[in-house]
Amino acid sequence: DAGVTQSPTHLIKTRGQHVTLRCSPISGHKSVSWYQQVLGQGPQFIFQYYEKEERGRGNFPDRFSARQFPNYSSELNVNALLLGDSALYLCASSLAVTDTQYFGPGTRLTVL
Amino acid sequence: EDQVTQSPEALRLQEGESSSLNCSYTVSGLRGLFWYRQDPGKGPEFLFTLYSAGEEKEKERLKATLTKKESFLHITAPKPEDSATYLCAVGGDTGGFKTIFGAGTRLFVKA
């Protein structure tokens, strides 16, 4: 069975630009969560979606937004990129909101 | 405030030298405690989920335990391939579900 997939693998942007990251969950999973991981730190929770509705939000500015589609895939959008947005962005899927989350390989975003 | 603290930050072991990693937590509405293993540049790999105090789970050389305030990940007779960062996370439900991760323990096992 395919695990969580994310695209792209790597991305380089400049300050002020916009980026869209994509995630496909494990088949049968209805919840998707997004995390930001800076080098040397644990993942920081950004959003969780379940059945296309936002079910949790972390302490991130409004420049970060997300959505979930009818097929349960998800997009994370970041506007007006800052140097500090450079990080590994992780997507995780779960059967439901409080169930065990399984992570994808991540998207490495570099902002120059 | 919900918080997860892992100790030690780094741990160096000789092959076969057993030890334990600690995860202390404070969270409202605990819905689960999770352990993951992460290799450099990769996504976290799921190891265990614990739901209530007193619960224990084992997998190969790893054993996870849970109390009301902390969890331990015991590593028995580690091998070099066990070298990785071990992450602890808690799921809390207070006005919206959140998963909070600790900073991790970097484990180095020398042959």
Structure characterization notes:
- The complex is a heterodimer of chains A (112) and B (111).
- With 112 residues, chain A is an all-beta fold.
- Chain A contains no helices and 11 strands.
- Chain A has strands at 5-7, 10-13, 19-24, 31-37, 44-50, 53-57, 64-68, 74-78, 87-94, 102-103, 107-111.
- In chain A, strands 2, 4, 5, 6, 9, 10 and 11 form a 7-stranded mixed β-sheet that branches.
- The model of chain A has no long low-confidence stretch (mean pLDDT 96).
- Chain B is mostly beta strands and 111 residues long.
- Chain B has no helices and 11 strands.
- In chain B, strands 2, 4, 5, 9, 10 and 11 form a 6-stranded mixed β-sheet that branches. In chain B, strands 1-3-8-7-6 form a 5-stranded antiparallel β-sheet, with no helix packed on it.
- The chains are: A mainly beta (112), B mainly beta (111).
- Chain A binds chain B through residues 4, 33, 35, 40-45, 48, 55-58, 88, 90, 97-98, 100-106, 108, and chain B through 4, 6, 31-32, 34, 36, 41-46, 49, 87, 89, 91, 93, 96-104.
Put simply, the count of helices of chain B is 0
Largest sheet of chain B: 6 strands, mixed
Nearest-integer average pLDDT of chain A: 96
Give the proportion of residues in helices of chain B.
under 10%
Question: Hey, roughly how much beta strand do the residues of chain B contain?
Answer: over 45%
Number of strands of chain B: 11
Shape of chain B: globular
- Poorly predicted runs of chain A are none
Write a short abstract of this structure.
The complex is a heterodimer of chains A (112) and B (111). By secondary structure, chain A is mainly β. Chain A is built from no helices and eleven strands.
Strand-helix topology:
The complex is a heterodimer of chains A (112) and B (111).
Chain A: E1 5-7, E2 10-13, E3 19-24, E4 31-37, E5 44-50, E6 53-57, E7 64-68, E8 74-78, E9 87-94, E10 102-103, E11 107-111
Parallel strand pairs in A: 2-11
Antiparallel strand pairs in A: 1-3, 3-8, 4-5, 4-9, 5-6, 7-8, 9-10, 9-11
Chain B: E1 3-7, E2 10-14, E3 19-26, E4 30-38, E5 45-50, E6 56-59, E7 62-66, E8 70-75, E9 84-93, E10 97-101, E11 105-110
Parallel strand pairs in B: 2-11
Antiparallel strand pairs in B: 1-3, 3-8, 4-5, 4-9, 6-7, 7-8, 9-10, 9-11
